[in-house]
Amino acid sequence: MTHQPAPQRVALHTRLKPGKEAEYESVHAVIPPELDTALREAGVRSWRIWRNGLDLFHVVEVDDYAAMRAALRDHPANVGWQARMAELLAVEDDYSGGDTGIGLVWELPEKE
């Protein structure tokens, strides 16, 4: 039995355009199967999103965040999804930068 290394946990913050809250949640009710496959093939183990007003907070568990973004940058399923998200988000993600997420300040350690 091989032991898989612990995933990276990356926090992200995005912001909706005013009035797009319900549409964003509706679009995320079921993501396209080809996007689900692309995310998993890129090493995503889980992706959770919380919303507070217009602010969106994501926590991604992924094998390698930089490699995931490189794999998804030109993937047809993600390109289409990002075009749809650009209609809803205040700032679109064009996958051009060296995004590393929000820096961790503190975490309650798990008890062993």
Describe the protein in words.
GO terms for molecular function: racemase and epimerase activity, acting on carbohydrates and derivatives. This is L-rhamnose mutarotase. InterPro entries: Dimeric_a/b-barrel, Rham/fucose_mutarotase. With 112 residues, the protein is α+β, with helices and mostly antiparallel strands. 33% of the residues lie in helices and 22% in strands. Strands 1-3-2 form a 3-stranded antiparallel beta sheet. A hairpin with a 2-residue loop joins strand 2 (44-52) and strand 3 (55-62). The longest helix has 11 residues, at 76-86. The protein is globular, with a radius of gyration of 15 Å.
Short description:
This protein is an alpha+beta fold and about 110 residues long. The chain is built from four helices and three strands; from the N terminus they run βααββαα.
**In percent, how much strand structure appears in the residues?**
15-25%
> Sheet with the most strands?
3 strands, antiparallel
First-to-last CA distance:
22 Å
Shape: globular
What is the residue-averaged pLDDT?
94
- What is the gyration radius calculated from CA atoms? 15 Å
What structural class is derived from the secondary structure elements?
alpha+beta
User: How do the strands of the widest beta sheet line up side by side?
Assistant: 1-3-2
Determine the number of helices (DSSP H or I, runs of at least 4 residues).
4
Helix content estimate: 25-40%
Instruction: Sketch the topology as an H/E string, one letter per element.
Output: EHHEEHH
Low-confidence stretches: none
* Beta-strand segment tally: 3
